[in-house]
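Summary of Year 1 activities. Much of the first year was spent building the evaluation harness for sequence design. The harness presents a backbone, in tokenized form, and records the residue chosen at every position. We chose the following record to illustrate the format because it has been used consistently in internal testing since the harness was completed.
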């Protein structure tokens, strides 16, 4: 039916009243403020004029902007509502902005950066959908190149595998040409070896050289998960041999950023006067491994090969002031960005430098190493809840405490994981502990960060960690995702210098602290300060030797550095006596457990 035209009608103006829009914006901002206050979320930007997106309150909301395919996998995995860190970090990363996030252990930080990265990868890729291939393939092409969409850096192999398995579960059944890969030592091993090592006895004797087939990642790799050491080694190769091209890189995610960016040693360079060339002695710290990766990205940006500047996301449970200042000042320099172009959003959930409130923290005084051994036997007989993690100072002490546990109670299923085991051995031990085949897992700080063991009831710090950050990460292996846990720390008289940081963490977490112990620690600090003021430089040096690592390689390195720094003309600015800045804190009073009076392994040797 046609409507007749009426010449008397005048065109009406249907403009929306601006006051209504302003009211809606005010309601949104008030709701966001209330949500942040109730969940203890603090977010700020370097540029105060830049707007911070409001948090998301459910995964299915329009503001979340996550694909329905990923949401389907998300709900099947049991995700219902976003955690505080997820609710605020997802909208920030969807806008492709740089982020420095700090949240408690077990709060869902892995999914907080995987969801926006995978969502942007899905929207950027227009290929056909199929299943995600989960097998490593061998590519024989000489022009093999990988163009990753995102690079995720993790400090350990175990955390790297955990991130990959989580990403595969979130992206399963979506796209086959978006491969999620973990970079192992076996990949591209041939081109990384030295020429002298490539020649074997068989090659010398045979007339025809033996062809070595190189294991490579698929060229369809879009999400590359690696440790900084392995990735920096490949990026240092010449362009014709480097298998990774970062010209299409969109995201660089650094998990456990405080561990990656910490500087335990001074980067000291000196000239060798005998040969006339400069040699740099740089200890193998994570900071020195991450720096070449940023330099490579900077070269790609300067040459104009990159499609767009990649964004950087830094995540950790502990973010000290040094990392914050690095992200504010040095990161834009590495990315070659002006202060006006660089934007960084700082996000913090919960109390800073505090453990999870769901963990009950206990301190048990043992006086000596013999007392710690007796307390451990008491816990095995009465108070140990399984599954349990026991943290030790070194792998030697971890192996020795395993012998003591097995000799005390043969029915306990226990094992050790440390850096001296192969990658396959470590993976099998972690798998056995996850499947409940082990009651007790003894480890060093190798498993102190990022690893998510569901259902861990108790954590025992047999050796007190030297830093409060390490204590927070150790304690955070239990009480994850809202579950309750228990953490027991055994300390002796020699651990008194490290108790100050642990007490401050316990206070911030709301745990009870013994007033007498707090008074004792404060008194010890005053006496140490007065003693250091009275002592000469040589005597101060002897006092600092108590916190120096006893590892053979570090002692040899210190000798070389000290010897050559004396020859360097510009070595006046370097404080040679300050060994504490070169070495990780170490407790020289901890000897071998087998030598402790009453040790069962010692009795077995005598018999």
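For this record, the design step produced the sequence shown next.
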């Amino acid at each position: 039916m046609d409507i007749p035209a009426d010449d008397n009608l005048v065109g009406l103006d249907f403009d929306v009243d601006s006051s209504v829009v302003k009211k809606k914006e005010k309601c949104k901002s008030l709701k966001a403020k209330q949500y942040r206050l109730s969940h203890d979320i603090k977010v700020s930007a370097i540029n105060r004029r830049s707007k911070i997106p409001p948090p998301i309150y459910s995964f299915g909301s329009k503001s979340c902007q996550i694909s329905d395919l990923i949401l389907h996998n998300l709900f099947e995995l049991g995700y219902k509502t976003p955690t505080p860190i997820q609710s605020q970090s997802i909208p920030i990363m969807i806008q492709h902005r740089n982020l420095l996030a700090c949240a408690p252990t077990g709060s869902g930080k892995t999914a907080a950066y995987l969801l926006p990265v995978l969502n942007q990868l899905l929207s950027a890729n227009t290929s056909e959908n199929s299943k995600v291939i989960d097998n490593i393939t061998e590519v024989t092409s000489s022009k093999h190149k990988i163009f990753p969409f995102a690079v995720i850096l993790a400090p350990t192999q175990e955390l790297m595998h955990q991130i990959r398995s989580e990403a595969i579960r979130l992206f399963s059944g979506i796209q086959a040409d978006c491969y999620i890969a973990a970079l192992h030592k076996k990949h591209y091993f041939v081109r990384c070896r030295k020429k002298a090592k490539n020649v074997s006895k068989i090659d010398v004797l045979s007339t025809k050289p033996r062809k070595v087939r190189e294991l490579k990642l698929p060229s369809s790799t879009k999400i590359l998960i690696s440790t900084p050491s392995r990735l920096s080694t490949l990026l240092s190769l010449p362009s014709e041999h480097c298998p990774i091209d970062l010209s299409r890189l969109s995201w660089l995610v650094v998990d456990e950023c405080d561990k990656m960016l910490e500087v335990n040693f001074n980067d000291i360079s000196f000239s060798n006067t005998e040969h006339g060339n400069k040699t740099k002695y740089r200890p193998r710290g994570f900071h020195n491994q991450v720096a070449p990766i940023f330099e490579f990205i900077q070269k790609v940006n300067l040459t104009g090969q990159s499609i767009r500047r990649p964004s950087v996301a830094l995540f950790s449970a502990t973010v000290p002031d040094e990392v914050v200042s690095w992200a504010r000042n040095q990161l834009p320099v590495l990315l070659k960005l002006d202060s006006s172009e660089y934007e960084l959003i700082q996000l913090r959930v919960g109390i800073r430098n505090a453990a999870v409130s769901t963990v009950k923290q206990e301190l048990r005084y043992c006086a000596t190493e013999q007392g710690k051994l007796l307390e451990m036997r008491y816990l095995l007989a009465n108070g140990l809840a399984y599954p349990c993690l026991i943290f030790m100072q070194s792998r030697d002490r971890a192996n020795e405490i395993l012998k003591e546990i097995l000799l005390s109670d043969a029915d306990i299923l226990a094992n050790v994981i440390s850096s001296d085991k192969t990658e396959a051995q470590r993976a099998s031990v972690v798998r056995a502990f996850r499947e409940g085949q082990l009651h007790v897992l003894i480890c060093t700080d190798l498993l102190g960060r990022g690893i998510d063991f569901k259902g861990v009831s108790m954590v025992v710090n047999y050796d007190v960690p030297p830093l409060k950050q390490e204590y927070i990460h150790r304690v955070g292996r239990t009480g994850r995702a809202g579950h309750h846990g228990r953490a027991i720390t055994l300390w002796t008289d020699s651990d008194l210098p490290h108790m100050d940081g642990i007490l401050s963490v316990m206070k911030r977490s709301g745990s009870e602290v013994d007033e007498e112990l707090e008074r004792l620690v404060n008194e010890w600090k005053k006496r140490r300060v007065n003693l250091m003021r009275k002592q000469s430089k040589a005597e101060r040096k002897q006092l600092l030797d108590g916190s120096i690592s006893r590892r053979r390689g570090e002692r040899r390195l210190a000798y070389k550095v000290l010897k050559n720094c004396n020859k360097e003309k510009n070595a006046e600015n370097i404080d040679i006596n300050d060994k504490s800045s070169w070495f990780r804190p170490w407790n020289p009073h901890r000897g071998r457990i087998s030598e402790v009076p009453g040790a069962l392994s010692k009795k077995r040797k005598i018999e």
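DSSP finds 21 helices and 16 strands in the chain. Quantitative recovery figures across the full test set are reported in Table 2.
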